[in-house]
Specification:
The chain has a domain at 38-76. Helix content is 64%, strand content 0%. The protein is built from three helices and no strands. It has helices at residues 13-48, 52-57, 69-75. The longest helix is centred in the middle third of the chain and has 36 residues, at 13-48. The radius of gyration is 28 Å and the shape is rod-shaped. It starts with 12 loop residues before the first helix and ends with a helix.
Length: 76
Amino acid sequence: MSTVAIPTRPRRRTSRTLRSLGKWLVTFALVVIALAALYPLLFTIINSLKSRTAYAQNPLGLPDAVSLENYIDTFN
């Protein structure tokens, strides 16, 4: 018997590379969207741990000392 070779196309590495790059871009975009969605929640939690004077002095910074007075005032 004789064997017949079926001609096949050589695999393209560029398509695999582009597919891999596309997956990385999608992953990066989803991480950015997740961080953008979680930022307001984290900002609120961090600022709730500041005292009123610390928040008035630096609303965007991290708290120097953790204060639970806002929670105590809320539940009293």
